[in-house]
């Protein structure tokens, strides 16, 4: 394989798909991690990493979309890329990728540009859209990705999923303990 093969549109599509998954998994993990009470003193550091990895992920996904649009082997029109279920190639799984992009875009733009206008309560509800976005992205990659059956690829998806599940479970347990703590209960009259 010569050097040009490594930088072919096909290889860049595959690489950008995995990088998008990596950055969004990292961002989601850091977001969950930074919300844990044991890390109060380091919260700003982890939130900064969370936001940066989210932007890297979104930009990588945009690069992925542009490359798919330029691909000659399985061509996609702009409509197929941006209108869910419109693609001829794997319409459901292509739609999950499109919907994932829209949800990630909504979460990141609301976080960085509209949080003050939205208010914290609405922003938090919008921010939860990152979970279905991440799940849609993973299903999209597993179903359409040409490397999805490779052991290394399955390991990446399984380890990313395990990390998110474990951190989500820890966050769930911690939030349950906070709700039940005596400090949070209203005093009786």
Which helices and strands, and how do they pair?
Blueprint: H1 3-6, H2 9-34, H3 43-70, H4 78-82, H5 91-113, H6 115-118, H7 120-127, H8 130-144, H9 151-180
Helix pairs in contact: 2-3, 2-8, 2-9, 3-5, 5-8
**Rg, Cα atoms, Å:** 19 Å
SS class: mainly alpha
What count of helical segments does DSSP give?
A: 9
Tell me the total number of β-strands: 0
Backbone shape: globular
User: Helical proportion?
Assistant: over 70%
In whole angstroms, how far apart are the ends?
78 Å
Major sheet details: none
- What share of the residues does DSSP label as strand, in percent? under 5%
* Order of secondary-structure elements: HHHHHHHHH
Give the overall pLDDT as a whole number. Answer: 90
Number of domains: 1
Low-confidence stretches: none
Describe the 3D structure.
- The chain crosses the membrane at residues 12-33, 54-72, 92-114, 126-146, 152-170.
- With 189 residues, this protein is mainly α.
- The protein has one domain (3-184).
- Helix content is 76%, strand content 0%.
């Amino acid at each position: 394989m010569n050097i040009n093969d490594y930088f072919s549109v096909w290889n860049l599509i595959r690489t950008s798909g995995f990088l998008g998954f990596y950055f969004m998994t990292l961002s989601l993990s850091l977001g969950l991690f930074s919300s844990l009470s044991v890390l109060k003193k380091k919260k700003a550091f982890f939130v900064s990493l969370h936001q940066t990895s989210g932007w890297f992920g979104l930009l990588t996904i945009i690069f992925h979309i542009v490359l798919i649009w330029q691909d000659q082997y399985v061509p996609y029109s702009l409509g197929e890329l941006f209108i869910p279920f419109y693609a001829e190639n794997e319409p459901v799984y292509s739609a999950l990728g499109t919907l994932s992009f829209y949800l990630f875009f909504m979460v990141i733009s609301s976080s960085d540009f509209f949080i003050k206008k939205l208010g914290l309560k609405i922003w938090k509800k919008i921010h939860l859209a990152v979970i279905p976005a991440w799940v849609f992205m993973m299903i999209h990659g597993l179903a359409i990705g040409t490397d999805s059956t490779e052991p290394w690829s399955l390991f990446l998806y399984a380890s990313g999923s395990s990390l998110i599940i474990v951190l989500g479970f820890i966050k769930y347990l911690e939030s349950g303990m906070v709700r039940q703590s005596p400090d949070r209960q209203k005093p009786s009259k």
